[in-house]
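Model it.
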Amino acid sequence: MFRKLAITIVILIISESHSKPSPDNGEVFLTNPRYLNYDDLTTLFEKFVEDYPHLAKLHSAGKSVRHRDLWALEISSDVGNRPLLTPMFKFVANMHGDETVGRQLLIYLAEYLLTNYGRDERVTKLVNGTDIYLMPSMNPDGFENSEEGECESKPKYVGRTNENAVDLNRDFPDQFDGSIRAGTILSGRQPETIAMMTWIISRPFVLSGNLHGGAVVASYPYDDSNTGRTCCKESPTPDNELFKGLATIYAQRHPTMRTGRVCKNEHFVDGVTNGALWYEVHGGMQDFNYVHSNCFEVTFELSCCKYPPASHLPNEWQLNKESMLSFIEATHWGVKGLVTNENGEPVLDADVVVEGIPHNVTTSNKGEYWRLLLPGVYNIYATAYGYQRSESERIQVTKGSTTIQNFALKLQRAPDKGNMSKKLGESQWFWSS
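Modeled.
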């Protein structure tokens, strides 16, 4: 009897250790866990910049309705001076103010990267090779209106929405709304939305994670469709398989998300779903990133309870830490390079085309491009207004590494106007309103 009891106790201990991973040494931020309010967050990020001036720089993407900054902490080994071809990554959290786990995880992630740089080989490589931006709160007003311990949104969605009672994840341009015109694309939108649209378009982000709560799943575009349905029909992008791969890299490294059965009455195969297959979101930020910029964004729902007690935060960090690091590393999937003219000068706003995938990326003002791709063989070429199209290059993409492919374009006598970039961010009319 005593032997059976001892065996049972050992099994319980092992089971508990798997469901609640223990923190690694050096993660002192997990001691006495608490949520930081706006003022505390501001103070901490300013302290990070003071303590790590060579690694951290604080940016404001804009202001909330109540004039709080949308802080983004940049972390890079050459912060503020991005080396050529270094890709940009972003995590954004707390778009819904009462979904708070992701907000605190990004604060933890910032401290983890800064304190482990030069000590941990993986962190050092990541920071050396990636320009990382962490925005813990896109909706600081909503967060201040929310209450710890509330697992569901308040009546009238107070806290979820911004100060003007607008759901920010329904406030972006809807790609299927034919009534939106060029000169009015910013009209009537919330200050947080305008700030994010401008930030997304004005910087060459490659990959992004949008952290939410209320479920546990990795959800990829499209969130919307042209069917008029509310749910349950997949709406794939031209990069559907790539998005599945990006979502899976996070879900499979999350001990519970990968099961797909974390929250009551929810089942997601392998912990991932197409957004519209789950339920449709019209005017969401995830789709905006893909349609109007070079950035690929995936949404990660992290907890069944939207605003769990702070005592849950250390476990949430352990559940998500490996997933977050692996997702940042995915910024280096695929192909990157320079598009130049015959004199070696950068060609900006050139389209880089992967044959068979009708979604191009465009070059930065330095002539750089980054094209996320799964392992495989692709035919890729570059084209730009006023230049002859390059030859197609047959390129092998291998797992876990970046293939470099440069293109040199020759001027043409009669420019082909059809080669002009059609990305919203590179058209002057965007800035006219």
